[in-house]
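Researcher: I've been going back and forth with a colleague about how NAD(P)/FAD-dependent oxidoreductase might be arranged in three dimensions. Neither of us has a model we trust, so I'd like an independent prediction. The organism is Microbacterium salsuginis, in case that matters for your notes. Sequence below.
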Amino acid sequence: MSTREYDLVVIGAGPVGENVADRAVQGGLSVAIVESELVGGECSYWACMPSKALLRAGSALRAARDVGGAAQAVTGQVDVAATLKRRDAIVHEWNDASQVEWLQSAGIDLVRGHGRLSGERQVTVTDADGRATVLVARHAVAVSTGTAALLPDIPGLRDARPWTSREATGVRDVPASLAILGGGVVGSEMATLFASFGTAVTVIARSGLLGGVEAFAGEAVKQALTDAGADVRTGVEVESVERIASGDVVLSLSDGSEVRAAELLVATGRVPRSQDLGVDAVGLEPGAWLDVDDTLRVRGFDWLYAVGDVNHRVLLTHQGKYQARAAGDVIAARALGRAVDEAPWGAHVATADHSAVPQVVFTDPEVAAVGHTEASARAAGIGIRVLDYDLSWVAGASTHADHYRGQARAIVDEERRVLIGATFVGPDVAELLHAATIAIVGEVPIDRLWHAVPSYPTLSEVWLRWLEAWGR
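Model: Here is an independent structure prediction for NAD(P)/FAD-dependent oxidoreductase. You can compare it with whatever you and your colleague have in mind.
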């Protein structure tokens, strides 16, 4: 068993771990990063990148069909084989050589194998051949191991060999039919994707679609899926699952009905990858979320950090990378005795996790949201005014598509007269989101926004319509 020493040891070389390591190196520390799978992590190979690559073909085709002149040129359906080939190129055929080269160029040492905490400031890495290497951290260990798919405790489910998001985004043979358990982001996006492939899709979503955003967003996605031929069932639960002799999966539902499909995708949530992390060696519970303060340090420790999904603050790659920048910088500052800026919106804290989290759902239609919903703002006791506008009434909508349908909602704090939430639903609304994020983070006064003139004719003119509804 060999021993190596670094200032910082990072467990998990996904985009979050990479950013923690990079910022710490830039801050003057020596860093080792541990990875048991592919450098680049879930997002690069099994989540964000492949899913959006797969969804794009159907999105582009729908957009072309709604523009006179382009619609007449569309002569077929999504080419599934070509779409999968493009996905393969984007994930580099699940080869991480380019990511490894980047680590080397950034001055970060890669240690391949499964890393476990084995004591204070100590990580033991076991490689594929069973060889162990002990990494000793002079200053800190950062856990960036992310999450795995949750499989609910439903009789027969595990024996039915269901898909998780990994199998869905890595699909090679597209099934003729697919049942999807769960109506969150993954379930809704994968329903959109496989419907575009011509698969017969059935979604079982007990509480409806996209429960974390404004209700009108989930309803719009449900309607689009129904229009695309999907069967969306809400208000029912799966009571049992069986993989029958023919190879199909049969789901028995609480209303007495059954759903039969070639494959079953489970998209009911995520669990932290902390079960086999050795956290019990330092007094923490295996399989639990790692609770952190705003500098991403695990509470009760002065050397242990948890960054990204594993801390359960926000399960989004871009927010994890935001946390990573703060964590890498503060680890370096503390290690080298520099000043630490822990004030709200300071350089070393992840303040935006609490009030300005942006998210895009790449369904049909797209859903883009940041900050509060009406329900969350009222639950927080904030006096608000809700500004709604039909996006199809904006001049840019008529030039964008022949039958544009969309909706936008702004949530304004009446006392402070600032935007605290925004939701957009419609084709290509993702590109509207960052302006709203900036307005919320910057606490831009409504009166000042009158002087931020939207270009004409674009969808951004909705900002002017909101202001007109607010009044001066």
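Researcher: What would you highlight for our discussion?
Model: I'd start with this: DSSP finds 14 helices and 21 strands in the chain. After that, consider the following. The chain has a mean pLDDT of 97.
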